[in-house]
Design goal:
14% strand, six-stranded parallel sheet, 221 residues, 2 domains, Rossmann fold, Arc Repressor Mutant, subunit A, alpha/beta
Length: 221
C-alpha cells in the first residue's frame, strides 16, 4: 500500500513588483513541498486573500502600498493566528528585523539572497521554527557590543545560565546522556533545553550551535 505524499505548503506571496513575484514564485514552485497558490500586489490585498484562501504561509514584502508587510503581518496575526508569516525585504536593518518578529513573523529574509535562504525559511516556518538570516546574528552581536562600550543599557540575556551550560557542552560534542549525567538532569530535559536554544537563537542544528558557541566565546575554534 502506497502512502500519500503530504500536501505541499500553500503559500500566499505579496510584493508590489510583478517581476519580483515571478522570480520568488519560480524559487518556491520549484520545490515539491511548497506551492504558491495566491499572489497580491499590496498588503491590503494580501490580508483580503488570506481571509478567503486556504493558505498555510504568507510571504510578505516589507514595503508595499496601502498596507506595508509589517502592517499586514500584524493584521493577519490577529485574524489568522494559525497562519505562518515570513517578511521578505531589501533592508538589512535591526529595527525592521525586531518589528517583523513583534508583528508575528517567524522569519526575515533578504531579497538579495532569497534564492539561498527563502526555501529554508519557508520550511522552518512550516515547522513552527524561527528563521534568522545568517548575517543577522553577527550584526546583532556587534551592535550589542557597541552598546556595551558606549555604556548604554543592554537587552536581557538571550539565554539562561543553564542553557548556556548546555550549549557549551553540546558544542564540545557531548551526547544528551553525557550532558545529563554531568548536570544531574535527564537526557530528555537536555533535549528540551537544546530545542529551546535552537528556537531562541534561530539556529537549525548542532553545527550551527557550535558555530554560535565559538562566536560568543564559549568554546575555542
Amino acid at each position: 500500500m502506497t502512502t500519500q505524499a503530504p500536501r505541499p505548503a500553500r503559500i500566499l506571496l505579496a510584493d508590489d513588483h510583478a517581476l519580483v513575484r515571478r522570480g520568488v514564485r519560480l524559487i518556491l514552485d520549484g520545490e515539491p513541498d511548497l506551492t504558491v497558490v495566491a499572489e497580491a500586489g499590496d498588503g491590503a490585498e494580501a490580508v483580503a486573500l488570506a481571509k478567503r484562501e486556504d493558505v498555510d504561509l504568507a510571504v510578505l514584502d516589507i514595503a508595499m502600498p496601502r498596507l506595508t508587510g509589517l502592517q499586514a503581518a500584524r493584521e493577519l496575526s490577529r485574524l489568522r493566528p494559525d497562519l505562518r508569516i515570513l517578511i521578505l525585504t531589501m533592508y538589512d536593518n535591526e529595527q525592521y528585523f525586531f518589528e517583523a518578529l513583534k508583528a508575528g513573523a517567524s522569519g526575515y529574509v533578504l531579497k538579495s539572497v532569497a534564492d539561498r535562504d527563502l526555501v529554508e525559511a519557508c520550511r522552518a516556518a512550516m515547522r513552527d521554527e524561527s528563521f534568522i538570516y545568517p548575517g543577522a546574528i553577527t550584526t546583532l552581536i556587534r551592535r550589542y557590543l557597541d552598546r556595551a562600550r558606549e555604556g548604554e543599557s543592554l537587552p536581557e540575556r538571550a539565554i539562561t545560565e543553564r542553557e548556556e551550560e548546555i550549549l557549551k557542552l553540546v558544542a564540545e560534542g557531548h551526547t544528551s546522556k553525557e550532558i545529563g549525567d554531568m548536570l544531574v538532569i535527564s537526557a530528555k530535559t537536555v533535549e528540551r533545553h537544546r530545542a529551546n536554544l535552537l528556537q531562541k537563537l534561530g539556529l537549525r542544528d548542532r553545527l550551527e550551535l557550535t558555530r554560535y558557541a565559538i562566536r560568543v566565546g564559549l568554546i575555542e575554534p
